[in-house]
Write a structure and sequence with these properties.
By secondary structure, this protein is α+β, with helices and mostly antiparallel strands. The protein has 4 helices and 27 strands.
Length: about 450
């Protein structure tokens, strides 16, 4: 053997090495490798030409806001509608805008019918004598009787719903919706026909807040970052109350006559606006916020208003506002992330409901950038209950008691498959309207 001096293990190892060498030699791998190399060499091109980069013209273009250009970020995402290209919509000029719908050229009869209905139902005065807060048992029963049907779903605006308002009429359901491109859609739900909805364009930017006037519902006030307008159906015009450089965020009336309003601004300040002196604000006040998203006036003591910003939620007295150095009457602390909204309860104003990105309701409210942020709203008929959208499946709108107890969930496996970020409740009837990110409204 010649390897008698090796141990049994080393002899076994040497044998395995020899047998493996004979096996690989039999495969003639060196010859196969040579043939493969020859084939690859023949197919190899003589040289690789890299494409020349396109010559870019040396031109300096001013950087413009994507929001002003009406262009969405180029990221594909579900539930996001196709957005208008830049320049598709003309810029809305300052001053009054005629109440002419976008589709006026096609047929004006449907528009006339809609505006006539709005005018007619605004002349009827509602009786507030029987307004009261029902007990929770009867309230829950009324909620369970509210349903969504196919005919009560309609695409009313072209893009994401950012605000809604419902006419207080008890005879006709008239809903207004504002989207992110400055459109306002009016829908006569009671009409039941395709002609019941029309789109108007009174703003350039998103319509973030809308209210029918509490004393005259023939007036629909709407706010976008650059203007506050009043749609007057009796004159068929959207009057301009005041303008701003992309600063307005929300507003609320300081009195039942709707003559004055408190307006929140994205830079954190608030302004007092008098509609009787259009084009200017009576006062601009720094309240110490970095951003003011929503403002809301106390339902009983109108001198108090609630402002919500980044992590700030404070109550201020409008009588003591000054340009700088304002101190809140009360501060609602504990928010650790961005606050989307804050509203007083509708009857006494003794409660405040807020929506914050910290999910303190243990409620899935993380909408992301493609959906309008949730706003929890009080049912104006019920002091102790509020409604808010949900990211849960099946898609739903939840009703909570002020204790945090879930009272009811509005959903429909057949007809509701999207998130309703913005909701509005009728002040007298059992009617709920939910708006989604594609401009569609759902009426329970």
């Amino acid at each position: 053997d010649g390897h008698s001096h090796l141990s049994a293990y080393e002899r076994k190892r040497l044998k395995n090495i020899t047998e493996n060498a004979k096996f690989f030699a039999a495969l003639k791998l060196h010859e196969s490798a040579a043939r493969l190399n020859q084939i690859a060499t023949k197919r190899q091109p003589h040289g690789t030409k890299r494409p020349k980069p396109r010559k870019v013209e040396d031109e300096r273009a001013l950087r413009r806001s994507m929001r002003l250009l009406r262009v969405e970020p180029s990221v594909p995402v579900s539930e996001t509608p196709a957005q208008p290209a830049a320049g598709e919509y003309p810029q809305i000029p300052a001053g009054p805008v005629p109440m002419i719908p976008e589709d006026q050229a096609e047929d004006s009869r449907g528009t006339e019918a809609l505006l006539n209905t709005w005018m007619r139902i605004s002349e009827l005065k509602a009786d507030d004598a029987d307004r009261h807060t029902p007990d929770l048992e009867r309230y829950q029963e009324s909620l369970s009787n509210m349903v969504l049907s196919e005919e009560n779903i309609r695409k009313v605006v072209k893009s994401r719903v950012c605000s809604m308002a419902i006419h207080p009429s008890e005879s006709t359901i008239l809903v207004a919706a504002g989207d992110k491109w400055g459109h306002i859609g009016l829908w006569n739900v009671s009409c039941g026909s395709e002609e019941g909805a029309h789109i108007f364009i009174p703003h350039n930017l998103q319509v973030s807040c809308m209210h029918f006037s509490p004393c005259n519902p023939a007036h629909l006030l709407s706010l976008s970052p650059d203007s506050l307008r009043c749609g007057d159906v009796t004159r068929a015009v959207f009057d301009e109350i005041c303008r701003s450089e992309e600063s307005f965020s929300s507003f609320d009336f300081l009195e039942d006559s709707a003559s004055t309003a408190i307006v929140g601004q994205w830079d954190g300040a608030v302004a007092v606006v008098d509609r009787r002196t259009p084009g200017m604000s009576e006062l601009s006040a720094d309240i110490g916020f970095k951003r003011t998203r929503t403002v809301h006036v106390h339902p009983v003591n109108k001198q108090y208003f609630l402002a919500a910003g980044l992590v700030d939620v404070c109550v201020f007295d409008v009588r003591y506002l000054k340009a700088k150095g304002n101190q809140p009457v009360s501060s609602l602390t504990g928010h650790t992330k961005s606050v989307a909204s804050a509203y007083f309860s509708p009857v006494t104003g003794s409660r405040v409901v807020t929506v914050c990105a910290d999910d303190k309701l243990r409620h899935n409210s993380n909408t992301g950038r493609w959906l309008t942020r949730f706003r929890a709203i009080w049912d104006p008929k019920q002091e102790h209950c509020f409604l808010v959208g949900s990211m849960a499946q099946p898609r739903q709108i939840n009703v909570f008691q002020d204790t945090g107890k879930l009272l009811h969930s509005f959903y429909s496996l057949d007809y509701l498959s999207s998130v309703c970020s913005i909701n509005v409740v009728h002040p007298r009837r059992n009617i709920l309207v939910g708006g989604n990110s594609s401009g569609r409204l759902h009426v329970f």
